[in-house]
Amino acid sequence: MSDSIGEGEVTRKEVESLFTRLDQEAESGGYHLNPNREFTLGLIEGMMVNERRYGYWACPCRLASGVKKEDLDIICPCDYRDPDIAEYGTCYCGLYVSQDVLDGKRKATRIPERRPAEGMAAPADRMSASAQPGLPDLSGLTYPLWRCRVCGYLCARGQPPEVCPICRAKKDRFERFL
């Protein structure tokens, strides 16, 4: 981090400010930032550099293509955060951790990459909700069903919300589910 802003550089003050905001948002949403402050500040700096470079918070631990549509699954918070935290106690890059990791009851470990080599499958390639066993037939809904790719929140309305009420992901992180 530098004190002056150059190409892709961010200041310590900017990083600290975003850290405070992300920490408050995480805690209010039931998540926790990594307690290793310097490590976490480094990740946040990487996200900010990627935002200046690409226009979005591409995960700093993955290679972004620079094409937002191709990178939607790795925009922080990424699509893999919740399953990684549930299984390993931390997300892939280590920005978010479980309560057990935060309390020191569990150590953070290396996490295998969940992202398919070819990127995420298009929504049309996924099984529709009505075709899944045990789910009701929702094909008669008046409005389309939208799913947040980050947390799985579902809503039936004309357009997806601007911000997910659960995880605060932006509108472009929603996919048409039905």
In short:
With 178 residues, the chain is α+β, with helices and mostly antiparallel strands. The chain has two domains: 12-102, Ferredoxin thioredoxin reductase catalytic beta subunit (Ferredoxin Thioredoxin Reductase); 123-176, Rubrerythrin, domain 2. The chain has five helices and five strands.
Characterize the structure shown:
There is one protein chain. The protein has 178 residues and is an alpha+beta fold. It has 2 domains: 12-102, Ferredoxin thioredoxin reductase catalytic beta subunit (Ferredoxin Thioredoxin Reductase, Alpha-Beta Complex); 123-176, Rubrerythrin, domain 2 (Single Sheet). It is built from 5 helices and 5 strands. It has helices at residues 12-28, 37-54, 68-71, 81-88, 99-102; strands at 32-33, 96-97, 145-148, 154-156, 174-176. The strands form 2 sheets. A 3-stranded antiparallel sheet has the order 4-3-5, with no helix packed on it. The protein has a two-stranded antiparallel ribbon with strand order 1-2. Helix 1 (12-28) crosses helix 2. The longest helix is centred in the first third of the chain and has 18 residues, at 37-54. The model is unreliable at 2-6 and 120-131 (pLDDT under 50).
